[in-house]
Amino acid sequence: MPPRPKADLVLATSATEREAFLADVHVGIVSVANDDGGPVTVPIWYAYEPGELLSFINGRDSLNARLITSAGRLSVRADRGGPVSMGHRRDPSPGSMIR
Description:
Strands 3-2-1-4-5 form a five-stranded antiparallel β-sheet, covered by helices on one side. It is α+β, with helices and mostly antiparallel strands. The protein has two helices and five strands; from the N terminus they run H-E-E-E-H-E-E. The radius of gyration is 16 Å and the shape is elongated.
């Protein structure tokens, strides 16, 4: 089988491009590890200002909030229907990520 041609698409973005993308309106997706080993993944609306923390509203008594508190970390994806910016944060301080 012949080698596959390399794509010309470059997915790397600068910090400025990433921050501008995140500051725009996109659907966010939060994932956190569940006790059974699989992730719990939910769509969110989020707010972000360049240079600040990403924030979103999550019910304090929800399964997702309890798992985030227990795990001490989560993954966030901002989706525009194409290549995306992704990030994660370890040990969120109480109230900084869950409101």
